[in-house]
Amino acid sequence: xxxxxxxxxxxxxxxxxxxxxxxxxxxxxxxxxxxxxxxxxxxxxxxxxxxxxxxxxxxxxxxxxxxxxxxxxxxxxxxxxxxxxxxxxxxxxxxxxxxxxxxxxxxxxxxxxxxxxxxxxxxxxxxxxxxxxxxxxxxxxxxxxxxxxxxxxxxxxxxxxxxxxxxxxxxxxxxxxxxxxxxxxxxxxxxxxxxxxxxxxxxxxxxxxxxxxxxxxxxxxxxxxxxxxxxxxxxxxxxxxxxxxxxxxxxxxxxxxxxxxxxxxxxxxxxxxxxxxxxxxxxxxxxxxxxxxxxxxxxxxxxxxxxxxxxxxxxxxxxxxxxxxxxxxxxxxxxxxxxxxxxxxxxxxxxxxxxxxxxxxxxxxxxxxxxxxxxxxxxxxxxxxxxxxxxxxxxxxxxxxxxxxxxxxxxxxxxxxxxxxxxxxxxxxxxxxxxxxxxxxxxxxxxxxxxxxxxxxxxxxxxxxxxxxxxxxxxxxxxx
Length: 480
What we know:
The chain has helices at residues 24-27, 67-77, 90-102, 117-122, 135-139, 143-147, 171-176, 181-187, 191-200, 224-230, 250-264, 277-285, 298-312, 359-373, 375-385, 392-398, 407-418, 429-451, 457-472; strands at 50-56, 81-87, 109-113, 150-151, 154-155, 157-164, 166-170, 203-205, 208-215, 289-295, 326-329, 343-350. By secondary structure, the chain is an alpha/beta fold. The chain has a 5-stranded mixed beta sheet. A hairpin with a 2-residue loop joins strand 4 and strand 5 (154-155).
């Protein structure tokens, strides 16, 4: 994504337009719309007019092309309501949203990652919809991704998808290396098995090298690699269930050693610290790596489209690219631990202005957020992304839509999502903020130095441990 990527981006850095969105507080004066129990229930009833604003990035390749139709469909469902959508690029989404939040006039709805909820809760600018979202709405969603929209006891919107952060392999290269990828998709692999497999994927011809594994570690992807790996080493969250900081565990040090080991083996490029998300994908499409990461389901779609361009021979394919069948692969597990899939849960988060919104406007915002996250809108968007559907209504709408996906990949994603990392709405905002600060100021720069060969794993571990004890106290960190 974008993520996620977002991702999934995943995976990002990001101006207020002259025509700033109207604040929800300026939309909710004099409204007396009757809240409906289910979408569409208010159609044909007498209700005050209201406008709901939404700030939305290009969630999929065709998402923003559908804005006009989405607004028309919403108005047809609720004739008294107008959905006003402001498009944003991924690059300026955060800056645009933060500018509006800081001015006290955010949009009613913004599409953001669930990991950003605590930030805006701390600023007092999110709208808790736990007293307004109906049981029919809530029960439409799969339970696990819905939990990601919570913080404490509050609910702050609806999830759009839960995207697995996986690895992606070139089918021909995997088969050439003798890797039974179908077995790996079903049963996973250990770090030792993975290490030996990617060694087999290395090919050298003259001055060119095909690596066994490449992962984006620069720019917006700087924290993805380590965050994804440690979840499979007994640390599914930065905090244990008793709220002790987890990354002081000895398992963290072992993962750091393994991160360095794959580079020293020659299975990954020595210049890994300079590989950003764009270069990572270019290396995959041009045959410079057997396996890539962070892999998102939508990459299969991107690879298919590039393959079609190669077949058309019209010069629009990525320069130097080869045809590649994209295979979804799990991240290896470490130290005998159970696999835990890192996931991106992005969604339609509900904001409020400086003034308390009226109950009527709040109900209208909930209708709009649910409309965007469910049914036809969700089905169309998620199919474009190749991500799994997480609502019953979305699955029903998608049943009549055709998607050209590898069935092995569909099954592999289902396995990955079956052990997705648990949401942690119990982590206090203050602890979460400290962990983010530690990540930004210590973990990311130290990881870059480790990848570049400037420091040893032990030095990075000791730096993280010292910073964690300074932040949380000796009793507030794992000591094993």
